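Hi again,

Forgot to attach this to my earlier email, sorry! This is the prediction with 1-O-alpha-D-glucopyranosyl-D-fructose bound. I've pasted everything inline since the attachment limit keeps bouncing my files.
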Amino acid sequence: MKKQWWHDKVAYQIYPKSFCDSNGDGIGDLQGIISKLDYLKELGVDIIWLSPIYVSPLADQGYDIADYYDIDPRFGTLDDMDELIAEAKKREMYIVMDLVVNHCSDEHVWFQKACEDPDGPYGKFFYIETVKEGEKLPCNWRSYFGGPVWEKLPGHNDKYYLHVFHKKQPDLNWENPELREEVYKMINWWLDRGLAGFRIDAIINIKKALPFKDYPADREDGLSGMQNMLHDAVGVGDFLGELRDRTFLPHDAFTVGEVFNEKPEELPDFIGENGYFSTMFDFAETVFGASQKGWHRSLDITPDDYRNCVFSTQKKVEGVGFISNIIENHDEPRGVSRYIPDGDQCYESKTLLATMYFMVKGLPWIYQGQEIGMENRKVRSIDEVDDIASLNAYKVSVADGVSEQDALDAISKFGRDNARTPMQWDDSENAGFTTGTPWLCVNENYTWLNLKAQRGRSGSVYEYYRKLTSLRKNPEYKQTIVYGQLEPTLEEMHNVMAYYRRGEDQTLLVMGNYQKEPQTLPLPGKVKKVLLDNCEDLQIRDTDRSIRLKGYQAVVLELENDPGE
Ligand code: TEU
Ligand code: CA
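Structure tokens for the complex follow:
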């Protein structure tokens, strides 16, 4: 595999609105991020992805962009952005922005002009169809946020526009080369400004199966989930290859794709040697158990399911490309609440999960607050929910006959607000996030679950994450951890996750007891060195052929290279 500058790095996602508020208006901002760069450096972060901070009405919290060339005043200014890029550079850190080009905001000037003249040049930047009185809509696809993907074009009774997300997010028509040129121009403008690259939002959706047609309804609403159309859509690579060649390649930009529903045979095109993107996120664990009927019908993921999902992705990408590994992001519940059995959340289980995902092959991403083990927040009433996906999920659950309490419980479990409550810096009011009123309520557990309570304290989740990042950067082990083959082992053992990382002349063995009861695992060979142990109590004798792990104990072992091997 051709080595890339970012292969041995550690990446971090910031959700700016909830990270750090520098001016007391209750909204996180760029100056707040700049003030925390040294903290992120201490954690071992190299690459920072910012969720969108462009001008936006925030209908979908910034994933609805009204001006790609400016920073929304709520987050700061272009000067602040230039300062952040410069300050990051001084610390050998790299800034990556969110590229949201499947759609823009209905408040973007392009869409305003399309409403004025649907048949003019800007009308062709979107999918606008004529639907006469009494005629059916062009297709029965369901928006990811619920309801039909067609909305009446403002000012026109017989025109409708397509939005696969929220109605305030009209889809950009990538079939139109003039639109694509505008997108490439904007990307190059940002890369010329010093960005290291982009996280590419919802990009699989830019290729629609045309002409528009219905798919079998999968709910009482007579609509069909987007996955049916995506399965039929052919040729997204034509757009992605042009996008890469016109923007990322000439800048040697780092790119990470948010790709769902990709066709398996297309994986090498996406992240292979000359792929459309540098890497893409592993979502196998994220989508596990999801139901087309709604969140309330989703299956829980067990430790064995989690392990099998991780290994399935590892086997899929081995020899193909570099995957990006997460346990959470701004669209998902907190990983320690999702991937650890209810009630077992503790230092040991949180650091076991951290070890298991951090030591597999690929680029590890930490989402803000994950490094201190932030947890889901229980929703008490629908009135406190901000997330439009959660509000839709609630409606879907209730329509499916579920009680309001059960519908609320599903939001507590899967809602996106779980990851968007403010970063918990300390135990002062509002967890040190703001001196004002936070835009979204702080998780009440901030009084004990905060960075200040963990920083500098051995045996804390935060300090354990620092051990993980420094092990990945340790010159003695870096080659094996970054490039070593991953070989699952003990896959038949219940609540065990174990895998080798095989380097040229070095073998590491990562072992986790994924339950609160202790259990004994076989040891395949002599242990040369214990590199990490979240319980700090492992005793191994030369003669040992087994290892007794405590509840949620995780270890990283260097094995003797058996001369006979
Ligand atoms: O998420 C895309 C998204 O919503 C996916 O989870 C989608 O549901 C998937 O394609 C299902 O197969 C991105 C952003 O991360 C999210 O915050 C935005 O709301 C969304 O796009 C629209 O920009
Ligand atoms: Ca602010």
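The CA atoms of residues 71 and 218 lie 40 Å apart. The pocket of 1-O-alpha-D-glucopyranosyl-D-fructose (ligand 1) is lined by residues 60, 63, 100, 144, 165, 201-202, 258, 260-261, 330-331 (CB under 6 Å).

That should be everything now.

G.
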